[in-house]
Amino acid sequence: MNIFLILKRWIEIPIHYKTLFWGFVRNEIKGRFAGSIGGFFWSLVTPLANLLIYIFVFSIVLQVRLKPMETGTDSFAVYFLTGLLPWTAFSEALSNATDAFLGRANLITKVSFPLEILPMSGVIVPFLLNGLGFVMFLVYLVLKGYFHVAWMWLPLVVAVHMVFTLGMVSLIASLSVFLRDIKQFIGTALSLWFFLTPIIYPLSMVPEKLRWVIKLNPMYPFIELYHQTLLHHFISFEMLAYAGSLALLCFLGSAVFFERSKYAFADVL
Amino acid sequence: MPLNAIEAQNLTKHYRVYLRPFDRLKEAVMRKPCHDLVEALADVSFDLPEGGTLGIIGENGAGKSTLLKILAGTTRPTSGEMVKRGRMAALLELGSGFHPEFSGRQNIYLNAALLGLKEKEIRDREQEIIAFSELENAIDRPVKTYSSGMYVRLAFSIATSVDPQILIIDEALSVGDQRFQQKCVDRMMNFRKANKTLIISTHSMYMINELCSRTLWLKNGRQCGLGKTPSVVSNYLSYLEEGVASSIDKPSEPSKPAESLMPDILIEQVRLLDEKNEPVVHIRQFQTLIVQVKTRRVGKPILGHLAVGIGFPDEVQIFETTTKMSGLEPIVFSGEQVIELKIPSIPILGGNYLVRVRVGDEHAMREIHRMTYGPFLIESDHPEIGMMWMPHSWNEPRAA
């Protein structure tokens, strides 16, 4: 099995099957709001409401302050949201991933189409939906005077983060076909993972002896990159290289696993 | 010599059956087999030239669906080789991939994209798909509100509009009303005429006879017959006949496969003949019309009655008669028979009509099998309006 051929396939599929790919994305998004009167409106209101609640609670009521030297901001709400929004996209993608193949058994056993499209749209959709909230948050940051040229790294950071997510989603999606327990366990795993990632606390608050645990967490470099570009206004190329290779490794590993197991899907489902 | 659209060689499919999902993991980790092997398909080989039509018949569980899944590419054979040439559309289950919350129109887009169409191609075909499915009034409603017949109509319209070189259909047309089924058969006929390759699996011998030049008979996953449709079908029917006979011998046997598959009396063919017993193409008003019905009874002779009716395509019947109404004794159905109804002069006005033939039990109460012929055209020189021409004359106007 040639790894370059697999890679080529993953790159070509969304181009060759453009209609199908975007059809899945569109349907997934529309499907979430199907039957509701507000429809797309809710995907704007919900993140906006969340944003306002966090800012209100942490900046106005509790007035939690951070040390700007360590976090790049003194506002806890700003620090928290910088990590939370990318995390939400990631964790939504992962918790939906268990159903990417399992929930479409009927389709997979009856229609022949490139299955790679399913994890791909499974990553695009939460990133698009949470992207709306993220853009609102960026606007808030600009208004608060956080804008900086270092933000130009943001698209790259998001891209690396998405590649990592795609790897995780493909792995979980294909594993779930064989191990249905993953579905039960993913929620707990994600909330554990959330608290082991420096989102709700800065790394500097973790006792020095225990920091290595946090740093081993594969999600740490991605969240840290968001913190760096948006708040610290610089990017550490070591961190970027680390995150990039982690993402690539995770994706390639999952792609190989997917390639080997995909022919068994129709038989197992 | 045309190229082969499909070449299948020694296709074999084994399914591993695990009693518990945990066994699958155990096997993967311990490397010790923890499964039972089920042979769904064994050594099936055939070639299908471009433009060929292949019917697949067999009892339930004979491996028809497995074979179609392999041909469609949703599953891989355990061993064996398959080559296919050309765009393929498979209808393994009608409406798989429909999203119940979305409207019919939205589902057209996703479903056609699944079958490999590009956005522009779908847009070009949208109107035609809707028109064929006859869902103009319901197309913007969510498909969860559709009846199963509407579901099938939409799915069939999409699959066939993709214009594939190879079309695979699995038992798809058993739903939907007679008229739509006829429309589907017509469309598949056009497929044949356009030199496209067609593979159908069905329990309907009528459809196989009508559509397929060659037939493959599967029995317990093995190839039991492959060849010209009439000979394979007749072998299959006599095999079913034996099955019925042996299950009568052994009444304790719970499964009678043949019974569920076939009506007691089968209408095999309906033809329209003129007074010289020649098949008619153009029917003229007041000509002699003979409705010839070919029936087949598998098993012991049984009694029954036959009904022949003429009506409009929209279910409205103009005239129907039965052998019982005509005061005849019940017909003894046994083997292949031909029964004819002669109408010396057909008074129906010009238009499109259907002949509906039904066979019922000896009391003419329970319907056993039915077949519809047509629509066919009756041509008339009379300008009058209505259903049929009645002899008439006008009296001179006079003072009242």
Query: Main beta sheet of chain A: strand number and arrangement?
Result: none
Give a short account of the largest sheet of chain B.
7 strands, mixed
- Give the CA-based shape of chain A: globular
The CATH architecture assignment of the largest domain in chain B turns out to be: 3-Layer(aba) Sandwich
The multimeric state of the shown protein is heterodimer
* Order of H and E elements of chain B: EHEEHEEHHHEHEHEEHHEEEEEEE
Which percent range describes the beta-strand content of chain B? Answer: 35-45%
Largest interface in this structure: A-B, 26 and 32 residues
How many separate structural domains of chain A?
1
Number of DSSP strands of chain A?
0
Number of domains of chain B: 2
Would you mind describing this structure in some detail?
- The complex is a heterodimer of chains A (269) and B (400).
- Chain A is mainly alpha-helical.
- Chain A has one domain.
- Helices cover 77% and strands 0% of the residues of chain A.
- Chain A contains 12 helices and no strands.
- The longest helix of chain A has 32 residues, at 237-268.
- Chain A is globular.
- Chain B is of the alpha/beta class and 400 residues long.
- Chain B has 2 domains: 4-232, Rossmann fold, CATH 3.40.50.300; 263-379, abc- transporter (atp binding component) like domain (Coagulation Factor XIII, Chain A, domain 1, Distorted Sandwich), CATH 2.70.50.
- Chain B is 27% helix and 36% strand.
- Chain B has helices spanning 21-30, 64-72, 104-114, 119-133, 148-161, 178-193, 205-211, 229-249, 257-261, and strands at residues 4-17, 36-49, 53-57, 79-84, 88-91, 166-170, 197-201, 214-219, 222-228, 265-273, 283-284, 289-311, 317-322, 331-343, 351-360, 367-379.
- In chain B, strands 10, 11, 12, 13, 14, 15 and 16 form a 7-stranded mixed beta sheet that branches. In chain B, strands 5-6-7-3-8-9 form a 6-stranded mixed beta sheet, with helices on both faces. Chain B has a 3-stranded antiparallel beta sheet with strand order 2-1-4, covered by helices on one side.
- In chain B, strand 6 (166-170), helix 6 (178-193) and strand 7 form a beta-alpha-beta unit.
- In chain B, 36% of the residues are buried.
